[in-house]
Amino acid sequence: MNAKLSAGLLATALLLTGCGGGGDGQSTSTTTAKVGLITKTETNPFFVKMKEGAQKAAQANGLELMTAAGKFDGDNAAQITAIENMVGAGVKGILITPSDTKAIVPAIKKARDAGVLVIALDTPTEPQDATDALFATDNFKAGELIGQYAKAAMAGKPAKIATLDLAPGISVGQLRHDGFLKGYGVAAGDPSIVCSQDTRGDQAKGQTAMENCLQKAPDINLVYTINEPAALGAYTALKAKGREKEVLIVSVDGGCTGTKAVQSGQIAATSQQYPIKMAEDGVKAVATFAKGGQKASGYTDTGVTLITDKAVSGVEGKDTAFGLANCWG
Fold first, then answer.
1. CATH number listed for the domain at residues 32-137+275-296
2. Which InterPro entries does this one have (predicted)?
3. Structure pTM?
4. Are 104 and 79 spatial neighbours (Cβ–Cβ below 8 Å)?
5. Which parts of the chain register pLDDT below 70?
């Protein structure tokens, strides 16, 4: 009886330690290559979709996915810890949406020095070449598109603009803001910009920011927002003042909830981006690196589309039927 048990345990031990070989045409390896995904938060629908895309691509490419996120947008310390943990766990590559695009760079350098492929998703680091590659929307273009749309939609009416931005030190927020200004045709500091507030992309903070702006400049008639949660917060504040039909709101992201808000008329237009594609492309790049050592490099534009049901002359876009069919695809 004991002899049989010992033989069984020995056979099991040999099976486990021998799994790395394979060779019969079927994978029996327990040493599955790992890929890490680090997002800014876990709760933002944008990053929820990104995680879904990464999980699907990891399964399709035979990788094990590790995930981590900050507790809030801007939580650099949590992202540093996540990088260190993932490097310690032996990941082949890390996909990251950096919360602090400058402060995260030393941790990324350590990971790359350890032989890990690091790819930024959505948000470039500063400098951009601190990562091996970037898969992202052209955030400047996204802002520029809605700036152009807003300019055409205002039809020559003098603008009183509020910008509900992200937060200092986050490149994606600055790029969208600057793109909007260029698209609208105004420079930073222009007197038509009557209020600017940070929202961290949060709906409640967006509402508070809009309330503050309305106290400062009650005659605001155009609102740019960093994303659709901030836009919906702004809409709530405007509705409380009975001004929701008088103020044009434009935004960026193109999530399903945000696209529905365009469809309902709460938001006039949004620039739609594609986080699932960012994640899928990033995971595929890590799989290629894990198999053959070929590193992804440079910037890959994952696309942006203006979504509106109120088309304007001279600005190309798609309607909300397209937007809902492709929201965060």
1. 3.40.50.2300
2. Peripla_BP_I, SBP_2_dom
3. 0.79
4. yes
5. 1-30, 329
139-272+306-326 has which CATH code? 3.40.50.2300
Q: Given the structure tokens 């009886």, which residue do they identify?
A: 1
Query: Residue with structure tokens 């039809």?
Result: 155
In the numeric block, the tokens 């970037």 are attached to 134
Pairing of strands 222-225, 193-198: unpaired
Q: Can you tell me the distance from the alpha carbon of 209 to that of 108, in angstroms, rounded to the nearest whole number?
A: 33
Q: How far apart are the C-alpha atoms of 22 and 16, rounded to whole Å?
A: 12
Beta carbons of 80 and 287 less than 8 angstroms apart: no
Structure tokens at 91: 């990941």
Residue type, 320: T
Please report the pLDDT score of residue 45 as a whole number.
83
Q: What is the pLDDT of residue 222?
A: 98
Comparing C-alpha atoms, which of 118, 153, 192, 81 is closest to residue 308?
A: 153
Cα 5-7-12 angle, rounded to 5 deg:
95
Which pLDDT tens digit goes with each residue over 235-278? 999 999 999 999 999 999 999 999 999 999 999 999 999 999 99
Which residue type does 323 have?
A: G
Domains 32-137+275-296 and 139-272+306-326 share a fold: yes
Per-residue model confidence (pLDDT) at position 1: 43
* Cis omega (within 30 of 0) for bond into 106: no
Render 66-120 in DSSP notation, one character per residue. EEEE-SSTT-HHHHHHHHHHHHHTT-SEEEE--SSTTTTHHHHHHHHHTT-EEEE
Would you kindly state where each structural domain of the chain is located, as residue ranges? 32-137+275-296, 139-272+306-326
d(CA 96, CA 82): 10
